[in-house]
Predict the 3D structure of the following.
Amino acid sequence: MNEAEHDILISRVVDGAASREDWAALERAGAKEPALWRDVAMSLRDHARLGQAVAAATACAERVHATGAGHGHESMPFSHAVVMSRTRRAAAWGGWAAAAAIALAMMGRGTLPAGGEGDGPMVAGLSQFTPGQLWSAYVQNGVAEGSVIAEVPDREVVDVEQLPDGGGLIVIYKRAVIERARVENPQLMRMSVDELGRPVPVPVAPTRDESVRTPSKPTI
Amino acid sequence: MDTEQSRREPGGMAQAALTAVASGAPQGVPDRDEIELWATRAMSGERGAVEEVWRLNRRWVAAILLAHKPRWAEVEDLLQEVAISLVRKVHEVREAKAFRPWLRTVAVNVALAAARSGKRRAGESRLNTGEGHDDAVMGHRREDLPPPEILSDSEQGSRLMALAMELPDGYREPLLLKAVQGLSYREIGEILDLPETTIETRVARGRRMLRDLAHKNELTATP
């Protein structure tokens, strides 16, 4: 039996696909060449380790969506997709503190719209819609008018409570939206810490798209 | 379409994620007919089908990117590009059978484009491994990792993956696809547009090459 045939037999054992004939051939070969069994053991161990490593390296795939329906992602520029990706990653790595550290706070004399202001009067008729419908309308209309880039696909679970009757769970989670705003006379600040470890805003120059695409320094 | 509905309903995503975590179950390997069905619908312009066909295929696409990406690039960033290409161009695919080879080509091109842009940025600075591979376009370097004797199991896995990146393309790609979610040789053959027997031979040979590399690096020390 040559090396290529050995490889195939060992590989079938690793895959759990070796037939009775394969095992018989392997036993015959192993009787003449005991080192073959060491190769089998190593291959099994390598396969398990490689499988775990590749699974870990590709797990991020579960966070990447080809979402289009209703959220306008079809026309989302790559830089926006990367921003979303990095914001998610920062939140995953270090929680909201890390996410806040890479986010630029828009402060000063800007005209950044704040939640609750300039949103218009509450219309009584809205009560006929569910919160989900209103949220969806906000995202879709925001995308259409340009104030919303996209909804962040992942939702961060904050807390989970078991229902007393065992009939399910209460899940508390955050959802996030990437928004775009025009700021007049902006002063962009980045959160940092002073020598005593206290959080302080530090002025920074606005960055351009190209810097957003630089992989090592995520900046919004 | 239950999955799509649950994704759009408040709480649906979080609950689905929790369920996946709680069960600890790996993502099921999608059936070929199921993929071709969704691919056909996606090619005809059905929006929900595009998301579904991506969900069914994104894990192996990540493995393809892993096999071809430059070291500095993040798989997740490149996946975003592939997903965007899918949304924009899936209608150009002529038949459902050609969908997976097409998606694989998109992924390879995205990884190679990233490598080219990286080279331009780096002023063509390269480091050659001496084994016919440009280390600047490989995913990992074995010297980035600590010595094998002090590594945990997961670190051993990372080191093994770094060694796998040194295998030639024709062996590296099927080996990573086989590792990622237990794709069958037939499915890998369909993705790579190669006969099933060729894939089995390459995976078997790739495993031996990896074993030899690991042995040479004292990763799998003799008991």
